[in-house]
From TrEMBL:
SUPFAM superfamilies: Thioredoxin-like. This is DUF1223 domain-containing protein. It comes from the Bacteria. InterPro entries: DUF1223 (IPR010634), Thioredoxin-like_sf (IPR036249). PANTHER family: LIPOPROTEIN LIPID ATTACHMENT SITE-LIKE PROTEIN, PUTATIVE (DUF1223)-RELATED (PTHR36057:SF1), PTHR36057.
Amino acid sequence: MFFDGRFPVLSMTAMMAYHSISRWSGALGVCAIVAIIRPAHADPRAVVELFTSQGCSSCPPADKILGELAKDPSIIALSMPIDYWDYLGWKDTLADSRFSARQKAYSQMRGDREVYTPQVVINGSAHVVGSDRAGIESAIGATRKADGVMSVPVSMTQLGKQITVSVAASAKGPAAMHGEVWICSISKSIPISIGRGENSGHEVTYHNVVRNLLKLGDWTGSPGSWTVPLENISRDGVDGAVVYVQDGSHDRPGPMLGAAYTTLH
């Protein structure tokens, strides 16, 4: 189902994610900490955002492809369910109006007014139909040729109930690049039984569904670090987190400069 728009990091290969479990001995008040070290997903070449809807009959093939892309450690795949098809008979149980606004903001920045489902936005710039796997791969290659795209090293470290995000300096010097740093919590797999609308009677599994978004701060080309309590982004079913650095602003999103993914425990 299509929507014509007129309707209303240098790679941190050595970086590791550190997870710790604290156990207190009540009588002595002694904290024993066990660190669990897992390799980070290094060298991401693309952030792929799928704008999808449970009420769109054309979306399930795209939802499946996003699940396949999510298995590729070089791709950070995100599902962003929109809400503008809710009036067709089925209210999307995962939809967020912020995702609808983000999709529209992308179209305004591109100047093409192309807003539809299933739509994939690659590295904050190019868009293709979400069920076009070859088109997605082609767009990944094309967008990576743009200056600065996915060139900034980003890492996350989970320690107890906090996540620390680190963004490296721009290779071109502090004045050459800038952007906003955002963290989003995700649910890796959510099966939904759809009771009405175009997909009535079907169960569709949605992958890497964004459940919350939080701006951490602005990046000005120099190294930066932010710490966020897990309670600020977590909710039931959340088992992963993605951080991205994006040129522009929330209302005027530009190219993706860097990103990182981690599993939450």
